[in-house]
Each structure stands twice: as structure tokens, then as C-alpha cells.
Amino acid sequence: MKFRAEIDIMPQKAILDPQGKAVKSGLKNLGIEVEDVRIGKHITILLDAPDKNTAAARIDEACVKLLANQIMETFQYEIFEE
Amino acid sequence: MKFRAEIDIMPQKAILDPQGKAVKSGLKNLGIEVEDVRIGKHITILLDAPDKNTAAARIDEACVKLLANQIMETFQYEIFEE
């Protein structure tokens, strides 16, 4: 079966996000006032797996071992059947 | 009212995604076989607005004017009441 994982990797709340701060001030210059901006990564992975649990386990492993730096980032994902 | 916008900005399907290709091959080296990887940005914005439609209009404007390069990227967002 084919699955699609939608993964968000965001900077931890305690970590400064200078890119977010820059975007916030850029938006202000455009007249769009916002309270806070946090910028991270969105990763879409397509994979084949026998079932949803196996797909989730594989995505979890990918996040822990390669995609997210858990010292500075948090990750969350959702798995969809394609 | 306070709203939270969760925005995904992804490379267009027709556009090559070398970062995604690199991650795919990195995952393969870890023994995790996947079919495709696409990498984009995830942006969380907190804002004050009188209602959800106004919040959505403001986020749409932010995406079009600053956050997404629509030649190469697509964006989608969801607005949540905080």
C-alpha cells in the first residue's frame, strides 16, 4: 500500500527563530500586523508499506535519525493512505 | 480574537527538488526506502483579527506578497481559532 506522510519540523519554542522575526518585520512593512511567526520545514514523503503502522514507524525513524535535530527542533507527522 | 495560521509552502510539482532528492538518498543509506521526498517550508503565524475570514484574508495576502514565490511554489493554509 502507498502512504503519504506530511511532516512538520519546527524550531523548539525556547529557541529563537531569526527567520521568523525577519518575516514578521517584513509583513509589518507590508501593513500586515501579526503577533508571531515561526518558520520550519514541511516534508512530504511518499512510501510503500504493508500497513499504516509500519509506514508510521518508518517515518518516525526517518525523523529521529535524519530529518529533525531534536536538540533544536520538534517534529510531528500525519500518515495518509494514498 | 486570536488565530493561528498553519501554512505549507511547497515547490511546484513540475520543479525539481534537489534537497528532497538528497534526503531520499540519505534515507536510503539509513536503510529507509521511500518513493519520493519533497521539502518545503512550514510557517506558523499568530495573529489578532475580528473574525476568521479577516484572518484568512490577511494570511492569503501575506503568502501572495511575501511568503510564497508562486512561480516556483504553491501554498496552502489552515486557520485555527486559538
Describe the structure.
The structure is a homodimer of 82-residue chains. With 82 residues, chain A is α+β, with helices and mostly antiparallel strands. Chain A has a single domain, classed as Phosphoribosylformylglycinamidine synthase subunit PurS (Mth169, Chain: A, 2-Layer Sandwich). Chain A has helices at 18-29, 52-67; strands at residues 2-11, 36-48, 73-81. Chain A has a 3-stranded antiparallel β-sheet. The interface between A and B is medium-sized, with 33 and 33 residues.
List its salient traits.
homodimer; 82 residues; alpha+beta; Mth169, Chain: A; elongated
Topology:
The structure is a homodimer of 82-residue chains.
Chain A: E1 2-11, H1 18-29, E2 36-48, H2 52-67, E3 73-81
Antiparallel strand pairs in A: 1-2, 1-3
Give a short overview:
The first copy, chain A, has 82 residues and is α+β, with helices and mostly antiparallel strands. Chain A has 2 helices and 3 strands.
Q: Return the CATH topology of chain A.
A: Mth169, Chain: A
Overall geometry of chain A: elongated
Tally the helices of chain A.
2
SSE order of chain A: EHEHE
Superfamily at the CATH H level of chain A? Phosphoribosylformylglycinamidine synthase subunit PurS
Quickly count the domains of chain A.
Answer: 1
Walk across the major sheet of chain A and give the strand order.
2-1-3
Task: Give the oligomeric state of the chains in this entry, treating copies of one chain as homo and distinct chains as hetero.
Answer: homodimer
Quick one: which chains have the greatest interface?
A-B, 33 and 33 residues
Q: Which percent range describes the beta-strand content of chain A? A: 35-45%
Total strand count of chain A, please?
3
Mean pLDDT across the residues of chain A is 97
